[in-house]
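User: Teach me something about this protein's shape.
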Amino acid sequence: MTLNPLVHLDLFGSLMVLIVGFGYARPVPVNPNNYRVRNADFYIASAGPLMNLLLGIIGAFLYGILAQNSITILAGVPLLFLLKLFIIINFNLFLFNLIPLGPLDGNSVFPHFLPPNLRIRYQHWNFRYGSYALIGLVLLSILLPNFSAFSWITSISMSMTNGLL
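Assistant: First, the predicted structure itself:
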């Protein structure tokens, strides 16, 4: 384990950000044998999305302070624009990472809300097909201009942002 973020960079995932605006990093290795708490995988998987939610809320708080303060006059509108973009991106990441497919955090969060018999069936299905389903949705959203599998994320995050500002 290391706090060095460069260890988690994936070359292809990083290039994807530059090419299509969507990428990924290597997953953080977690050893389930080290779990001391029941449902630890739920807490671990929830940490990333909850951090995005917290960063969005903190950004909205700072936006509110700066928008009502004379600092805005000195810094100009670009600072508020960047802060609003920061908020929207974090809310988008919060919602996107909760999608219960493939390697996303929702893959480990969602099963905890299912009855045991459905949980096992879902986990088996997602282990086999979840990543392919996610890649398929991303590709369809890129290739088909009228198909947007993730537009609801932007819609909800904009509502969250406007509700806080």
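Now, about its shape. Helices lie at 11-20, 40-67, 71-75, 77-97, 106-109, 116-143, 151-164. Residues 1-30 form one domain. If you'd like, I can walk through any region in more detail.
User: That's plenty for now, thanks!
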